[in-house]
Design a protein that fits this description.
Blueprint lengths: L1 H13 L31 E2 L6 E2 L6 E6 H6 L15 E6 L2 E6 L15 E5 L2 E3 L12 E8 L3 H4 L6 E7 L7 E9 L3 E13 L2 E12 L3 E3 L5 E2 L2 E15 L2 E12 L7 E2 L17 E2 L6 E16 L4 E19 L9 E6 L2 E14 L2 E21 L11 E22 L4 E22 L2 E26 L2 E12 L19 E14 L4 E21 L3 E20 L5 E14 L3 E4 L4 E4 L11 E12 L7 E11 L2 E2 L10 E2 L2 E11 L5 E8 L7 E5 L6 E4 L4 E9 L1
Parallel strand pairs: 6-9, 13-18
Antiparallel strand pairs: 1-2, 3-8, 4-5, 6-7, 8-9, 10-11, 10-42, 11-12, 12-15, 13-14, 15-16, 16-19, 17-41, 19-20, 20-21, 20-22, 21-23, 22-23, 23-24, 24-25, 25-26, 26-27, 27-28, 28-29, 29-30, 30-31, 31-34, 32-33, 34-35, 35-38, 36-37, 38-39, 39-42, 40-41
Length: 719
């Protein structure tokens, strides 16, 4: 409580009133609005994550927007790389599951049975499972990252924030682009798009490509490479404008990756294999059976925008997501045939519909909405205990869980401009879900077991806030909101015992901030302070030989963020984003089944929540004169992170990643019209090895490392 009072006092000191904010959140906005992707200042980037178009600098919340040009210059291919440019974002991956944390709020559940803590959207459609998040960042207009709970209008499963991949919209004039790329580890890629009108009021954009990367992990005894890319993708977007007041958008995106990118490597010697059949060298492993992988993602998004009058607008967003993933994994990563997952599958199919009515009357702006979501999901984890592909077959077990999710919500948001400088906002959402779950277990020669559960619950998610313009280019805000993430079903225990449901998690969140620009907008200084009372945090416990249990814990989180930018000249820009984060468990005791000990975690760090991080960078433009390439953009930057706890027990050596720095460089040559560009980049210049995930099933600490040094080049021509 003392921390909360301190935070609120600090918020009052630099934020005047409070923000209800978020006039928004919808599925990250339906139709993408084309914006400039030049080297704009922070405040000039237009965002739609809060539904109404606004510059990021005037949105009363912590939001970062990264343009498509920035993504290309820095070699950002997917969500893995966003931590390079987004403050307080930590990323990890294990067994094909992305583990994203914002401000210490995230999930360590790598089995795929939990729903995301950070909501992700593509083309305005929600991606309901965390193994969907590695889709390629191609043909994007920008990526928007909202930090902090987004419960009122985004709803459930956005307790930590939201990431919106906003795709490029069809253009009103004919244009296109072709690009080729290459780089480390046999990487190559081809991509392109064409866009423009094909009939009066009808506009089309077609894009696609293929990316290949051998992968930076090598299986020593077979030569197979892992954690690469073999991805083919395509997207068709159509916009129809029959009148000036009506527009309809339809997009279809398909993405297939056949690379084997689910694995885990030894961080310490294993007791089950001879020294010659194992290794702890970073990004090298052994295996007694082949690794494999395939993911397919289909996203269909439809949006209707209808201006009913000068004061009313109706928007409909319809989504369909069909996802399948298959992975084969040598679980022990040694030459000893101990455990092998032959086909780890996680299919998901979901439908969503959202209706929003916008009102704009004098000093009142409001949004009222209705949301429906349905998903059928399944997880099957089959483990062979012994050699694979032998006769008679080795014994094996299969852990599984299926879910049927039905979610309905009503929500509203009202903004009242009390004066020209003071705005009060109130938001409210009622969320109701009716879910059913089925756990199942089989073992060779033993009777199978199963268990069924049903959940029927509602939740009210309010938000109150105020925003005050202290100057023409300075706005202060403060807000309180409630975030909520759904509970769910565990996988059965390794012995076939049917485990109880894990419960939902909630965050009561206070935030205060100041966004400011001065000296003719050459300096941008944004600050935020926050406090979260985190209840029901879902954490997973390893249970040897191959099981997990999701538990609920409590935590308290508070911190400070700053986003600073200085443009001393039109050619030179500096960025500095320091953060402080204190994320600690609160009155939580857990049994570590690996070491058979009960651990009191009260006051201990939460996973993936380093106390200090700093994103830093600089950009410089050099004019080369009237030549083929008349401009040179030089960019450098990186990330510093203090110690990161990766196994929340942290009760044995090596379960944390010590502080580290990752630096990146890029250079872009462009012609006068910037329609011809050549970019080269080097990421992780010093080839720093840093751990991203740790598990321990009694065979020692295992997990994976972040990408090593990566060199790449991309040549693109727009016409």
């Amino acid at each position: 409580m003392n921390h909360r009072r301190l935070l609120l006092m600090g918020g009052i000191a630099f934020a005047a009133p409070v923000v209800l904010a978020s006039a928004a959140q919808a599925a990250g906005a339906a139709a993408a609005v084309p914006v400039s992707t030049s080297d704009a200042t922070v405040g000039e980037v237009v965002v739609t994550a809060f539904k109404r178009e606004a510059t990021a600098q005037h949105v009363p919340a912590s939001i970062s927007a990264v343009s498509s040009d920035t993504l290309a210059r820095q070699g950002i291919q997917d969500v893995r790389d966003l931590s390079k440019v987004i403050p307080n974002l930590n990323w990890g991956e294990h067994f094909g599951t992305t583990l994203v944390t914002i401000r210490g709020v995230g999930s360590n559940v790598d089995s795929g049975i939990t729903e995301p803590t950070i909501a992700m959207y593509v083309d305005g459609v929600y991606l309901p499972r965390s193994d969907m998040a590695t889709l390629r960042a191609v043909d994007l207009d920008r990526v928007e990252v909202l930090r902090g709970p987004q419960g009122t209008l985004y709803g459930r499963n956005a307790t930590g924030g939201a990431i919106n991949f906003v795709a490029a919209a069809p253009s009103r004039t004919f244009q296109g682009e072709a690009s080729v790329s290459g780089g480390s580890r046999g990487a190559y890629g081809v991509s392109g798009f064409v866009s423009g009108p094909i009939a009066p009021g009808l506009f089309v954009r077609l894009s696609g490509g293929h990316d290949h990367d051998d992968g930076y992990v090598r299986v020593v005894n077979t030569g197979q490479h892992l954690n690469g890319v073999n991805d083919s993708y395509g997207r068709l977007a159509v916009r129809y404008e029959p009148t000036a007041d009506v527009s309809a958008d339809l997009s279809v995106r398909y993405d297939r990756n056949t690379a084997a990118n689910a694995y885990q490597q030894l961080f310490e010697p294993s007791p089950v294999a001879p020294p010659s059949g194992q290794t702890t060298t970073p990004n090298l492993i052994y295996g007694d059976a082949p690794f494999g992988g395939k993911t397919d993602l289909l996203v269909v998004a439809g949006a209707l925008n209808w201006k009913l009058s000068d004061n009313l607008k109706l928007r409909s967003v319809t989504g369909f997501v069909d996802h399948h993933s298959h992975f084969a994994i040598d679980d022990d990563s040694t030459i000893t045939p101990l455990e092998y997952t032959d086909d780890f599958t996680r299919p998901s199919r979901s439908y969503s519909e959202e209706l929003d009515l916008f009102g704009d009357y004098a000093r009142f702006k409001w949004i009222a909405g209705l949301f429906y979501f349905h998903e059928d999901a399944r997880v099957v984890l089959p483990v062979i205990l012994g050699p694979s592909g032998v006769t008679p077959p080795s014994p094996g077990l299969a852990l599984g869980e299926s879910s049927k999710i039905d979610n309905v919500a009503l929500f509203g948001d009202l903004t009242w401009s009390v004066t020209d400088r003071l705005r009060l906002e109130l938001g409210l959402r009622y969320n109701h879900e009716s879910n059913s779950y089925d756990e199942f277990w089989t073992f060779t020669g033993a009777p199978s077991t199963s268990g069924q559960f049903k959940v029927d619950r509602g939740k009210v998610l309010p938000k109150v806030a105020v925003q005050y313009d202290v100057a023409p280019d300075a706005t202060a805000y403060a807000q309180w909101s409630l975030g909520y993430k759904s509970g769910g079903s565990n996988l059965p225990g390794g012995g076939g015992d049917i485990l109880p449901l894990y419960q939902p998690e909630t965050i009561s969140a206070w935030e205060a901030g100041l966004k400011s620009q001065f000296l003719d907008r050459r300096i941008t200084a944004n600050f935020a302070a926050f406090y979260y009372r985190y209840r029901g945090l879902q954490v997973t416990t390893d249970v040897p030989p191959a099981g997990t249990i999701v538990q609920n814990a409590n935590a308290n989180v508070y911190g400070l963020e700053a986003e600073l930018q200085w443009r001393p000249t039109d050619r030179l820009t500096f960025d500095l984003d320091p953060t402080y984060l204190h994320a600690r468990f609160d009155r939580f005791t857990s049994f570590d089944a690996t070491f058979l000990t009960t651990v009191n975690l009260d006051g201990q760090p939460v996973e993936r929540a380093p106390d200090f991080t700093v994103n830093f960078g600089a950009r410089y433009r050099i004019d080369l004169g009237n030549t083929l390439f008349s401009k040179l953009y030089l960019q450098g930057g990186g990330l510093y992170s203090s110690t990161v706890v990766l196994r929340y027990y942290n009760d044995a050596p090596g379960q944390s990643q010590p502080g580290y720095v990752v630096g990146n460089l890029s250079a872009t040559l462009a012609n006068a019209g910037e329609d011809l560009k050549l970019t080269v980049f080097i990421n992780n210049i010093s080839n720093t090895y840093y751990k991203q995930q740790i598990t321990n099933f009694g065979l020692g600490n295992m997990g994976n490392y972040g990408p090593p040094r990566t060199v790449g080049a991309r040549l693109s021509k727009r016409f």
